[in-house]
Specification:
alpha/beta, 5 domains, 21 strands, four-stranded parallel β-sheet, Trimeric autotransporter adhesin YadA-like C-terminal membrane anchor domain-containing protein, single chain, Coiled_stalk_dom, transmembrane beta strand, 14 helices
């Protein structure tokens, strides 16, 4: 028996055990570089002294040798036992069956020979298969480490030192992301992101979080708008150096040179300083004034209409002031026209004074008939709106304290416009109002003079009437004839010719008044001199109005616009970075007007270039309204004077024609707004013929005329006003709604009954019937349709041969109605 194989096996086993022991010893050490000739180096491998190997193998071989010795002894005993067996002895001979010598391994010598020589080592190769020496650079890759000492991460000097805090693991969730620092994190889906620093987090793709606690959470954007820049822009990600509530400064930044470079505080301060040179600024911190720097003034464009009221502080634009200028110009023209008419009136008064004196007796003869006509006209005037005269150029309303005309649409405001304007259209310039007030006062004095003259004439007429009354006894004989004449004239003016002879006698008396007329003419010549003086004053007034127009034009140029920013001289909607001769209010929509608020009250003077506010213009408008009212009153007075003069002149020229005109007016021919008309052609005057048809006639006979202040009708034939009509319509609508509601209720009731009837029909149809010959069947059924239910009960019977069937049924539904039906059938 040979034990060489066993010995080799033992040696191999011992070597394996030794290697395992070495591995166990190595695994118990920390994976870090050891000082003073380490046994294990992650780059240069394993290095062991011979004594370390022999000590380890010796410890492993002792139990193996003991076991092997015991095994050998057992084999020897078995060999001796086998030799003592006769059969075995006969075959193999007596004695030991096997020749087994003593085992002498000499393990100590073997270990000594094995451990002799150099140290036992396990070297490390690089990725190219080259042996790594202790002095070579070494990069280590491993699945994990256990840190002996926690240190901060340092990268530099051709090495990485420190791996942070054990357990505070950083995480880069995507292959192309980087996370450096305790708990640094690039979240799932944050491709190509970087998080550097403790607790730094990159949450979106292509983002960078720099510094402890920084969060990069703004994703790339496409087609977004940037404040202060035109067009749209795209970004791939964001860089964050902090988080919400935890901000950092970026310092030592070089000034940017490209559009996409970061700008420094120094650059921004410089840009603001440069912008301040071109911006429109308040004069001081009080913000009470703004001074524009344009040479010769600066134009402000795109100013929205400012509010015009007593409290407005909004800037007004040139269009608003132009409207005011047109109104002022119209007032000036009206004043000039009034001045001319006053002059004419004064001349007419002079002429009238003589003619009145001449014809006082003739007027007295017609006084009775005129008085009657005046009474009739007075009654007519109290009930209708009338033109002031046959020219239809003026209407005087008769309400106590004046009459308000409401809902007047904006009239055209131009030099040729004849449309009525409303209160919102009356505007003016304050500097012109004062001058106009003085001019109006001068005109008012002249009107007062005219009124005094008219009053004097009226007194003289009254005196004449008194004198005529004193002559009543002298003409008693003629009164009866005149009364008869008046009646006959009214019926048939042709009868007046019969009185011609008697009138001729009276004409002689009229001739005697010629001398008195001559005397009065001398007095009138004195008045003429005063008129000449008035005409000179009017010329002066015209010159002042012209000067006012020039002043208004200057003011318009000064206050046309309000400053807010410089704009292009050629395009007011385009902002300019440099001072220009033009500024504009530019809002969110560059093409839309912008309201300028909080405008301080401007200085109102010939040289002022301050912007005026709505309150100032409103005050001006109020004064213009007062002036306009005064002008209207003066115009009305002058129109009245003119009408009176014209009427007196007409009466003096021909009393008969005057009376005829008054009669025509009373008949409603051309002057009265409410006229008799023909039903077939109501818009054309019928010459005063009394009919059962009337029409409202305006300046344009083809257009309808609004009738205001209509009282509530009480009788069947009274006119109703809009309120009555609306009340009537409301009652009709309410009644109609009530009837429709009742109808809806009835229809709903009908629908419910119909649904119940349908349910009854369905229940009846659901009753089965007997199908056997000579059979009987009692059946029940239920029907339901759209919320209604019916129950049916039926009885059927068949004949002996099954060819005849009779059936009777009854129903009752949830609406409380019952029904019954019966039927029979025969088969053949």
């Amino acid at each position: 028996m040979k034990f060489n194989g066993k010995v080799r096996l033992r040696t191999v086993m011992a070597g394996s055990a030794a290697l395992m022991a070495v591995a166990t010893a190595l695994n118990s050490q920390e994976a870090k570089a050891q000082s003073l000739q380490p046994a294990v180096d992650v780059c240069t491998g394993i290095s062991l002294e011979p004594s370390a190997v022999t000590d380890i193998i010796d410890q492993a071989n002792d139990p193996l040798i003991t076991s092997l010795t015991s095994l050998t002894d057992n084999v020897i005993d078995i060999n001796a036992y086998l030799g003592g067996i006769p059969l075995v002895g006969n075959i193999l001979g007596t004695g030991d069956v096997l020749d087994i010598s003593d085992v002498d391994i000499e393990i100590d010598d073997i270990l000594a020979s094995i451990a002799a020589g150099d140290n036992i080592g396990l070297t490390v190769l690089d990725t190219d298969g080259n042996l790594i020496a202790p002095s070579d650079n070494c990069n280590l890759t491993a699945d994990g480490y256990t840190l002996g000492t926690a240190q901060g991460i340092t990268i530099g000097g051709n090495r990485i030192s420190g791996l942070g805090d054990d357990g505070a693991t950083g995480m880069a969730n995507d292959l192309d992301s980087i996370a450096i620092g305790n708990r640094a994190l690039t979240e799932v889906g944050a491709d190509a992101s970087v998080a550097i620093g403790t607790d730094a987090t990159a949450q979106v793709a292509n983002s960078v979080a720099l510094g402890t606690g920084s969060v990069a959470d703004r994703a790339g954007m496409a087609g977004y708008s940037a404040p202060g820049l035109a067009g749209t822009y795209n970004s791939v990600g964001s860089v964050s150096v902090g988080s919400a509530g935890n901000l950092r400064q970026i310092t030592n930044v070089a000034p940017g040179t490209q559009d996409s470079d970061a700008a420094t505080v120094g650059q921004v301060v410089g840009a603001v300083a440069e912008l301040a040179d071109d911006a429109v600024l308040y004069d001081d911190d009080a913000k009470t004034s703004v001074t524009l720097a344009g040479a010769g003034g600066t134009i402000i464009g795109n100013v929205a209409d400012g509010e015009l009221s007593g409290t407005s502080m909004e800037a007004v634009n040139g269009s608003q002031l132009n409207t005011t200028n047109l109104n002022v110009a119209q007032n000036a023209a009206d004043i000039a026209a009034i001045d001319g008419r006053v002059t004419t009136n004064e001349s007419d008064i002079v002429t009238l004074d003589g003619r009145v004196t001449t014809n006082e007796t003739s007027i007295a003869n017609m006084d009775g008939r005129v008085t009657q006509n005046e009474s009739d006209i007075s009654d007519l005037q109290a009930l209708s709106v009338q033109y002031s005269d046959a020219s239809q150029s003026n209407i005087v309303l008769g309400g106590a304290g004046g009459t308000t005309i409401s809902n007047v649409a904006d009239g055209e405001v131009s030099a040729t416009s004849s449309e009525a304007v409303n209160g919102a259209q009356l505007f003016a310039v304050q500097s012109q109002v004062d001058q106009n007030t003085n001019d109006i006062a001068a005109v008012d004095m002249r009107v007062s003079t005219n009124e005094t003259n008219i009053t004097n004439l009226d007194a003289r007429v009254t005196t004449n009437e008194t004198d005529i009354s004193n002559l009543d006894d002298r003409v008693t004989i003629n009164e009866g004839d005149i009364a008869n004449l008046d009646t006959r004239v009214t019926i048939n003016e042709g009868d007046i010719a019969d009185l011609d002879t008697r009138v001729t006698v009276n004409e002689g008396d009229i001739v005697d008044l010629g001398t008195r007329v001559t005397t009065n003419e001398a007095d009138i010549s004195n008045i003429d001199a005063r008129v000449t003086v008035n005409e000179g004053d009017i010329v002066d007034l015209g010159t002042r109005v012209t000067n006012n127009s020039v002043s208004i034009t200057n003011i318009q140029a000064q206050v046309d616009n309000v400053p807010i920013g410089y704009v292009s001289d050629s395009d007011p909607a385009m902002a300019s970075a440099t001072p220009t001769q033009t500024t504009a209010l530019i809002g969110a929509n560059p093409s839309a007007p912008v309201t300028l608020n909080n405008v301080a009250a401007a200085s109102l003077s010939a040289g002022s270039t301050d912007a005026v506010n709505g309150a100032q213009l409103y005050a001006t408008n109020q004064q213009v309204a007062v002036n306009t009212t005064n002008i209207a009153i003066n115009r009305t007075d002058i129109d009245t004077n003119t009408a009176n003069i014209a009427t007196n002149r007409t009466d003096i020229d021909t009393n008969t024609n005057a009376i005829s005109n008054i009669q025509n007016n009373y008949s409603g021919s051309v002057v009265v707004a409410v006229q008799y008309s023909d039903p077939d052609n109501p818009n054309v005057s019928n010459g005063g013929t009394v009919t059962n048809d009337v029409a409202l006639i305006g300046a344009d006979s083809s257009s309808p005329v609004a009738l205001h202040n209509v009282a509530t009708g009480v009788l069947p034939n009274d006119a109703v006003n809009v309120q009555q009509m609306q009340d009537g319509l409301s009652m009709a609508i309410d009644y109609t709604d009530m009837r429709f509601a009742q109808l809806n209720y009835d229809l709903e009731e009908l629908s419910e009954h119909a649904n119940a009837g349908t349910a009854a029909a369905m229940a009846t149809a659901g009753l089965p019937q007997v199908i056997e010959s000579d059979g009987r069947m009692m059946a029940g059924a239920i029907g339901h349709y759209r919320g209604e239910t019916s129950f049916a009960l039926g009885f059927s019977t068949s004949s002996n041969d099954g060819r005849a069937v009779a059936k009777v049924s009854g129903t009752v539904n949830t609406r409380g109605y019952a029904g019954i039906s019966a039927g029979a059938g025969f088969a053949f």
